[in-house]
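Annex B. Sample input.
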Amino acid sequence: MGDFGNLLLQITWDFYGPVIRPSVGGLHVCVCAECVERVKEIRIQYFYFLIVSKKNKDGKLRDKDHYRIVSPAFQYKMSHRRVGKCIIINNKNFDEKTGMNVRNGTDRDAGELFKCFKNLGFDVFVYNDQTCAKMERLLKEVSEEDHSDSSCFACILLSHGEEGMIYGTDGAMPIKSMTSLFRGDMCKSLVGKPKLFFIQACRGSEFDDGIQTDSGPPNDTIETDANPRHKIPVEADFLFAYSTVPGYYSWRNPGRGSWFVQALCNVLNEFGKQLEIMQILTRVNYMVATNFESWSEDPRFSEKKQIPCVVSMLTKELYFN
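Annex B, continued. Sample output.
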């Protein structure tokens, strides 16, 4: 019968197996209340299913490990007229009173992100050097728009930062004051839809010294971003992808851009329309953790590492295809 047939048999057994009972002369399907409820429960998972397979170069189907059963009931609907809006706030230059340096390399980040999210189908808009008031006003206006024909929303913040804070060109403000504008009780047209925030900024002043493994990583010159109808929860369906963990620096190369954005764009360009968002960000974590290490003539800033951090309140799987 082959792997495909065996897979269908397994699904059939999962569907009916729990309610099949032996009887004289064979089997019968039990229709007691308990079993009927069990069928309803399983039906939610398997009634609609999609088997995705890929072919090898010789045209033959790959083995069973490459079959993927997808249940639409547990996936975000991405079939709206538009994928959605992507806002990129790119802060490079800061008022002298803030004590923040110019963020060299951030324009490279913004450019790569623009192309990357455009390729995923987003309507991308870039805003450079925004004050705190302008950032909040911009996102408030976006949150008040009608997103009914959009599948999701994305916002990318490129700036200096501290834990829980992001810098406008004139000072720092709480990240939550911007993200909360998109809560379910504030932005009704995005209720039940994924709201993605990617934040390239420091979250403190600690360095990650790393720990030796079996293989040595490549070097990178340094710069940092710091000084730095049924009810659902209003905080549901958010995802925050931070460039680093709480308390730590976030590294940036003046020529190539930040480590996190380099890795994010690399993975999205290659797998953005194939993998689920958490798979994508796990690969980003791996790439940042293994492919980057700081180098400096000052030993205090040399041989440092970084690991991104994902905080997810998503309630379904998210595929951009």
